[in-house]
Amino acid sequence: MEFPTPHIHHPQTEHTHTIVLLHGRGSNGLEFAEELFSSSTSNGQNLASRLPNYRWIFPTSRDRWSTTFQEEMCAWFDIHSLCDIQAKQDLQKEGLRESILQILELLESETRLLHGQASRLYLGGMSQGMATALWVFLAGIATGRIEAPLGGLVGFSGWLPFAHSLESILDSDRESSGPCTLHTQGLVAQFFFSEISNSEISPPAKPSDVSVLSTPTFLSHDTDDAWVLVELGRHASRILQKIMGHVEWNESTGAENEGHWLKEPEGFDQILRFLETSAALHLKRNM
């Protein structure tokens, strides 16, 4: 089954940046876009109005069988439990591989529209969308399909699949020299190809430049989240800090939907600040 056509919110002025955002399990691209843009920053405007030069892309996953709910549902991958994310992890692999390849192809297409300027492209998601987006990025550097730093990664109310296994490899390797190193990049690639990939995905002839790990990352989670516990988000942040050069972690209290959302307007102000700051940083580097 093919993936549906993404929902696109086109820029209102000259197109300078693109952000790809992945929905959570049971949702879809259009629904996620409507929810996101119905929320406001502190001046009363939504993110699209504050960033009129951005092209907003909301892909939709294909439907797949949920072993937990025993029904077809729109999800990037199957998962047994969010109470114990280590249980039956093999269920996640097929969907993750499919979704990773789909989103990497989309990122490559959008980079071409930006005339090869990957620093003007952002990737992120909510809940399972964040979980998928993080592995899209890590797989992108493992396969060499993300060759240069992106503008940034954005995730909220989510987690990192295979977190404990990946962390174990990062912590047990005595030669590891910390974040943003070629050795750490190699460990991530080794884990991806041994634990998640299959024969359809080949290692690159030449690894991505290690500078790709300097991609700024913004993660946020509400402590009241009843669906994805905040500790799962904290754990994801800690692991990424061992890999990436700049990872920003934010917590809030009192968000809507039992905490499974961004707190309004503070959370949206934080995303706006992150996008504007990282865009200015990349512009300065390229001057």
UniProtKB/TrEMBL annotation:
**Record's PANTHER family?**
LYSOPHOSPHOLIPASE-RELATED (PTHR10655), PHOSPHOLIPASE_CARBOXYLESTERASE_THIOESTERASE DOMAIN-CONTAINING PROTEIN (PTHR10655:SF63)
**Could you identify this protein by its name?**
Phospholipase/carboxylesterase/thioesterase domain-containing protein
Record's InterPro entries?
A: AB_hydrolase_fold, LYPA1-2/EST-like, PLipase/COase/thioEstase
Q: Which residues form the Phospholipase/carboxylesterase/thioesterase domain?
A: 6-168
Superkingdom of the organism of origin? Eukaryota
| Pfam families on file | Abhydrolase_2
One GO process term, biological-process aspect: antibiotic biosynthetic process
Q: Which family does it belong to?
A: Belongs to the AB hydrolase superfamily. AB hydrolase 2 family.
Any one GO CC term of this protein is:
cytoplasm
> Any idea which GO molecular function terms this record carries?
carboxylic ester hydrolase activity; palmitoyl-(protein) hydrolase activity
